[in-house]
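Before a colleague's protein record goes any further, I have to sign it off. I want your independent view on whether this chain really folds as the tokens say. The record follows directly below this note.
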Amino acid sequence: MSEIDILSVSFDPFKEVDNSTEFVPGVRSKGAVHVRVQQRNGRKCLTTAPGISKNFSYNKILKDLRKELCCNGNVVEDLELGQVIQLQGDQRKNVAHFLTQRGIVKKEQVKLHGF
């Protein structure tokens, strides 16, 4: 019979982990826009986009999003996340495409979350 080779594992479970690229609720990544969908009631859902730079006018972005996506939305002030754009419906891919197309964020900075 052949001997079983033991593979050395380079993963150390007790090592300190750098969570800069992982999503942690309530903690904003540097420059990342986390586009999420939240289930409301029944088939209704809500798309949120926190993390857009404060250099941009949220109301102007919302106005263009509402016009292009044919849906309603508003800007909500959150204690942890700051200003958050909310839109009706599951608009994750559309919002990500809009933000990258208009040059508001880079494609690498958009993180899509949800079911």
In short: The radius of gyration is 19 Å. The CA atoms of residues 78 and 84 lie 7 Å apart. The chain has a mean pLDDT of 80.
